[in-house]
Amino acid sequence: MTSWPFGHKRNKRCQRYNHNHFVLLDYPDDILALVDYLNIRKFGIVAVSDGAPYAFACRRRISHPRLTGMGIVAGIHPVASLGTTGMKLPSRLMLYVSTWFPGLVTWLIDS
Questions:
Q1: For the chain, which terminus, N or C, has the lower number of CB atoms within 10 Å?
Q2: Helical spans, DSSP H, in the chain
Q3: Smallest Cα–Cα separation from 66: which of 44, 46, 42?
């Protein structure tokens, strides 16, 4: 178990993550613990790609005076829970293939 500067409660949370019991809406609590530790009163979040669901969780759980803004760059929704209905076929295929062959998808995108 990793030692955090956030006290005993955070250490239990870290142990819980290691046991695959993570809930997406727990993430904002960790962000608040971090900004409190760093003495940051107001902050914004920028999320990239699959960080988008975490940013949305923060937007939902952290009040406006504290979280001043949120930006998402090339965000993707949680495919496991929301599915790929309505997604264009090439994007859907690349998403599924990238799970098993990430190098192939990278090569296709870069070429």
A1: C
A2: 8-18, 27-37, 52-61, 79-82, 89-100, 102-110
A3: 42
Instruction: Give the Cα separation of 39 and 10 in Å (integer).
Output: 17
* CB neighbourhood size of 97 (10 A): 13
* Cα 70 to Cα 45: distance, rounded to the nearest angstrom: 5
Give SS3 for 70: strand
Question: For residue range 43-84, what is the model confidence (pLDDT) as tens digits?
Answer: 999 999 878 888 989 999 999 899 999 998 988 766 666 677
* Domain boundaries of the chain, sorted by first residue: 1-76, 80-111
More confident residue, 21 or 92: 92
